[in-house]
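URGENT: need a sanity check before tomorrow's submission.

F., can you look over the Alkaline phosphatase family protein record below? I want to be sure the sequence and structure line up before it goes out.
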Amino acid sequence: MAPVVVVNVVGLTPRLLAHMPNVAKVGAAATLKPVLPAVTCTMQATLLTGAMPRDHGIVANGWYFRDLGEVFLWRQHNRLIQSEQLWDAVPGMRTANVCWWYAMGGSSDFIVTPRPVYFADGKKDQDCYTRPPSLHDDLVAELGEFPLFSYWGANANIASSKWIIAAARRILTRERPDLLMVYVPHLDYDLQRFGPDAPQAVAAAREVDAALAPLLAEDATFVVVSEYGITNASRPVDVNRALRRAGLLEVYTQAGMEYLDPWASRAFAVSDHQIAHLYVRDPADLPRVRDIVAELPGVDEVLGQEGKARYGLDHDRAGDLVAVADPDAWFTYYYWLSDDRAPDFAKLVEIHRKPGYDPAELFMDPDDPFVKLRAGAALARKKLGFRYMMSVVPLDPAPVRGSHGRLPDTAADGPVLLGPFEGESYAATEFKGLLTQLLKG
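Structure tokens as predicted:
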């Protein structure tokens, strides 16, 4: 039986598929109905388990870990998923995971996932984690170093997706696993930068389609899926600043910089694209927090326990309340009231220290006339082996033009599923069953 290869082209919609002839050849495009929130970690967990967030526990790309008193985004341990996964659905199946999330500690026979090196002197360098360990040196020898610094941030480009696709093709042709799943991130970049209707979005779709052509020409059964569609959005909603002005969110100060104090705050938000999880320490504050957030321009609805249950989001990790943005709006993580009090990581590509998602990382500060010069100097220091600060991210979120997370208003703006399937529409929770049947033949 030919291997089954699942290609996750994040951000792919019916609109963009019209510009991707190689991908379109995989099969008829069916509508895929995402779960709330329609973000990477939640949707991938749903696709892998066939379960709702209330069961698999991945309520966002990150959340407030109440037992630790910390906000963490982009954790990588597979055990965070609390339901049985596709990797283990068919006994004896050999599997390969190339950059699907929650790979580390998973049961796949072959794993490749981004994993920077954090040196003892504070330097950071690009790299990836592999299983088996020998795969790392083989991939680097054949493909060069994993281009982590093109994976996300102002310089994000097609290079990382090309490397990921080449790694997947190498594993497919040499190891012939029964199931290979590969994540291709490139459409995320320019759709958030410029919006899905911009010429840059079409150009990005064509780049991805061309990069995928060699992989799609291999001897395998292909399935193409996407997690969400990105829609035009240009209204940032400063939910944490509203909570701070109301006296509910607290900060502490070090070296003149302000940091979110989740231990002391009566309420704060973990913002994640068009969804914000609101953590409220005292249940007596819930009505007030709901009213404050619901009245903010750009907020569509605020879900309590009943609302979360309606969307299958009623898990202990979720916020006590969950805010959903209007179609053209999204939530910032910003909590400082004056930019001169912002923490130094606010102007960096720093996906782990920020207590929320920051799409402004996709831009260099347009108000800084020396931003490219300073970026070049930082890169020079990096190449010479010195510590460096790539402090180029704007504190003004105005350039962002696309977002996702809420359920799509139309199928044309939602994710798709292509492969040897006969239906015209599927729920994301059906994906695991479809793949399991395909693998069983």
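My own read: The CA atoms of residues 197 and 232 lie 8 Å apart. Residues 158-175 form the longest helix (18 residues). If you see anything odd, call me.
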